[in-house]
Design goal:
This is F-box domain-containing protein. By secondary structure, the chain is α/β, with parallel strands linked by helices. The chain is built from 15 helices and 18 strands. It folds into three domains: 3-80; 102-419, Alpha-Beta Horseshoe (Leucine-rich repeat, LRR (right-handed beta-alpha superhelix)); 420-521, Rossmann fold (3-Layer(aba) Sandwich), CATH 3.40.50. Helix 3 crosses helix 4 (124-132) and helix 7 packs parallel to helix 8 (247-258).
Length: 548
C-alpha cells in the first residue's frame, strides 16, 4: 500500500458535499479517499435505518409515559379542586341558579351518534347532587322524531330512572312530550302513550302534549287519568302538518267531547287545546269549565254559540283566547249575560258573522282586549254595558283591504280613557290623531299603531313632528307610533320613510312606518298571561343516554 495514502488529506464528506458532484473531477488518490468516505456513510445510513425501525416502539412508550403523568396530574388537580370543599347544598343551589327553570330535554334521534345526556362526564359528587336535587329534574321535555318500539322502551326506562330517586308520589312537576310525524303504532301492542305518560301523572302539575292523531285518540280513549295535581294542560293534535280542516280533526273533536280522562282533575286551572275544527257540543264536554282560570282555544275553530256557552261556565277566567266561526241565531247569543268578573285578558279572533257576540259580555276587570271582527258596533255596545278600564286595545278587521275609516272608532276610544296602547287596522282620522296628541282623547296613551292612507301620510308625519317640537321630544306623551301605509307608489313610501327616520333620530322616539300588512297571518297575542304556555325553552345536554 502506498504510504502516502495514510497522510492527512483535506478531502472529507463536507468538502465533497460542498462541491458540485456532477462536475467535480477527482484524482486517483481523491477517489480512493472518497470510496472510504462512502463506506462510512453507508454504515451510518444502515445504523439510522435500524433506529427508525425501533422508533414506533419508543414513541409508543413515550406516549404511555406521558398519559400516565397527565392522569396523575388530573388526580392531583381533583384532590385540590376547590369545589370538593364546598358543601353539597351550596353546589346544589349553584346548579339550580344555573338552569334558571330551563327544562331538561331528551331529544332522541337515531341519526345522532351521541344522545344528549348530562351525567356521564361529570364527577361523582356532582352526579349525586344532580340526581338527588329535584329542582334540576323538575322540568323535562321529550322530543321524538323517528319513533320505534325499541326507542320507546328505552325512553320509558330513562324516564323511570329519572323518577326513581324521588319518594312515592313525588317527581318532576313539568313534562312535555312532542312526537313528530304519524309515528304509527302496532294495534296489537300496548300503546306507548300508556307507559310513557300514565305512570308519572300523579306527580305532574304541568303537562304539554303535541301528538299525532292516533296518539291523541289513544290518550282520550283511556279510562279516567290520575290528574289530581295537574294544573296546566296543553293538548295539540298534529294532523297532516296541522291542516285544521283535515277530517281527522273532527274525529279528535268527537273523542274530546266524550272522553273521561278529565273526570279526576280537581286542580286543573289552565287548558289549551289546538288544531281542532268545528267542535260540536264542546260546551257539554267533560271539562271542569267552572274551575279554569286560563283557556286557550285560539287555534281550535269553535262555533260562536259553543264559545259563548263555554264562557258562561268559565266564571273564574282570568285569561282567554278564542277563535270562532259560523253563524248562529241572535236569540241564542243574547238570551243570557256572560259575567266574567275576574277576566283581565281576552283575545278573540272572529271569522263568524254574528253581530251580537260581545253584547252579553260583562267583564269589569278587563285590562287587555284583542279582537278581530267585522262588527265594530258590537264592541261599542259591550263597552257601553259596564264601566271598563282597558289599558291595551287591539282591534282588527282582516276582511277590510282598504282599512276604511269607521265613524264609531272615535266614540269607542273616547270611552276608554285609561288606554296605554291602541292598535288597529282601521284608519285613524287626522282630527282624531290631533285630539290624541293634545290629550283631549286617550290622555295616558303611549303606543299607537294604525293605518295611514297614502294621500294623508305627509299630514300625519307633519302632525306628529309638530307635537314633538311643542313637547320637546322626551316630554311627549306618545312614545311610540307605528303607521301602516296603504298601497302606494314606492317613491312615496321611501320619501315618507326617510322623513320618519329623521324624526326618530332627532327626537329619540320610536316612530315607524311600515307597508300594509293585509294578507299576513293575524296573531292576537295576549300580554297578560296567567302563565306562559307557548314559549317552552329548551336546553340540550351532551353525553350518552343511559341504559337501565
Amino acid at each position: 500500500m502506498d504510504p502516502n495514502l495514510n497522510k492527512p488529506y483535506p478531502l472529507d464528506r463536507d468538502w465533497i458535499c460542498a462541491k458540485a458532484s456532477n462536475t467535480a473531477i477527482l484524482s486517483d488518490q481523491e477517489i480512493w479517499v472518497a470510496k472510504s468516505l462512502l463506506s462510512e456513510t453507508l454504515k451510518d445510513v444502515e445504523h439510522l435505518n435500524l433506529e427508525i425501525t425501533h422508533a414506533p416502539e419508543i414513541l409508543d412508550d413515550l406516549v404511555i409515559r406521558r398519559d400516565e403523568e397527565v392522569a396523575r396530574a388530573d388526580k392531583i388537580r381533583i384532590v385540590i379542586a376547590p369545589h370538593k370543599r364546598v358543601p353539597p347544598e351550596i353546589l346544589s343551589e349553584i346548579f339550580a341558579q344555573t338552569i334558571e327553570g330551563i327544562p331538561l330535554m331528551l331529544p332522541l334521534r337515531f341519526k345522532w351518534t351521541r344522545w344528549p345526556w348530562p351525567l356521564r362526564s361529570v364527577c361523582s359528587l356532582w352526579r349525586r347532587i344532580a340526581i338527588s336535587d329535584r329542582r334540576l329534574w323538575d322540568s323535562i321535555e321529550v322530543s321524538i322524531w323517528d319513533w320505534s318500539p325499541s326507542l320507546g322502551h328505552r325512553l320509558s326506562q330513562t324516564l323511570t330512572q329519572i323518577w326513581l330517586p324521588f319518594r312515592a308520589g313525588v317527581g318532576p312537576s313539568k313534562l312535555k312530550i312532542d312526537v313528530d310525524g304519524e309515528a304509527c303504532v302496532d294495534q296489537n301492542i300496548i300503546h306507548p302513550i300508556t307507559y310513557l305518560l300514565f305512570p308519572f301523572l300523579p306527580s305532574l302539575r304541568k303537562l304539554y302534549l303535541q301528538l299525532p292523531l292516533s296518539w291523541c285518540l289513544a290518550l282520550l280513549d283511556a279510562p279516567a287519568l290520575n290528574l289530581t295535581h295537574l294544573e296546566t294542560l296543553s293538548l295539540e293534535c298534529t294532523v297532516d302538518d296541522c291542516v285544521i280542516d283535515h277530517p281527522g280533526c273532527s274525529i279528535f273533536g268527537e273523542c274530546l267531547t266524550a272522553t273521561d280522562v278529565f273526570s279526576m282533575s280537581p286542580s286543573l286551572r289552565k287548558l289549551r287545546i289546538r288544531d281542532i275544527s268545528y267542535l260540536e257540543s264542546f260546551d257539554n264536554g267533560p271539562f271542569p269549565w267552572a274551575q279554569l282560570t286560563d283557556l286557550d282555544l285560539s287555534q281550535a275553530e269553535t262555533k260562536t254559540v259553543e264559545a259563548i256557552r263555554i264562557l258562561q261556565q268559565c266564571t273564574q277566567l282570568v285569561g282567554c283566547s278564542l277563535m270562532t266561526t259560523g253563524f248562529a241565531d241572535p236569540n241564542e247569543i243574547t238570551d243570557n249575560h256572560i259575567v266574567l268578573p275576574y277576566l283581565q285578558s281576552l283575545a278573540w279572533l272572529r271569522y263568524d258573522i254574528n253581530e251580537y257576540a260581545f253584547g252579553p259580555l260583562i267583564a269589569p276587570s278587563l285590562k287587555e282586549f284583542h279582537v278581530s271582527s267585522i262588527f265594530i258596533t258590537e264592541v261599542l255596545s259591550m263597552i257601553q254595558n259596564f264601566e271598563i278600564s282597558i289599558e291595551l286595545f287591539q282591534f282588527e278587521n282582516i276582511f277590510d283591504r282598504d282599512r276604511q275609516l269607521s265613524p264609531h272608532l272615535e266614540e269607542i276610544i273616547s270611552r276608554l280613557p285609561s288606554l296605554v296602547e291602541f292598535e288597529t287596522s282601521y284608519q285613524v282620522p287626522l282630527s282624531t290623531l290631533e285630539k290624541v296628541l293634545s290629550g283631549e282623547l286617550l290622555p295616558h296613551l303611549k303606543v299607537l299603531e294604525c293605518t295611514i292612507p297614502s294621500e294623508s301620510v305627509d299630514s300625519f308625519i307633519a302632525t306628529i313632528e309638530g307635537h314633538l317640537q311643542d313637547k320637546g321630544g322626551s316630554r311627549a306623551t306618545l312614545s311610540k307610533f307605528i303607521g301602516m301605509l296603504l298601497p302606494s307608489s314606492q317613491p312615496v313610501f321611501e320619501s315618507a320613510k326617510k322623513h320618519v327616520e329623521r324624526i326618530r333620530d332627532q327626537y329619540g322616539v320610536d316612530f315607524q312606518l311600515r307597508e300594509n300588512r293585509f294578507g299576513c297571518i293575524l296573531a292576537l297575542r295576549r300580554r297578560i298571561l296567567v302563565e306562559e304556555m307557548a314559549d317552552y325553552k329548551m336546553l340540550v345536554y351532551q353525553g350518552d343516554l343511559p341504559t337501565a
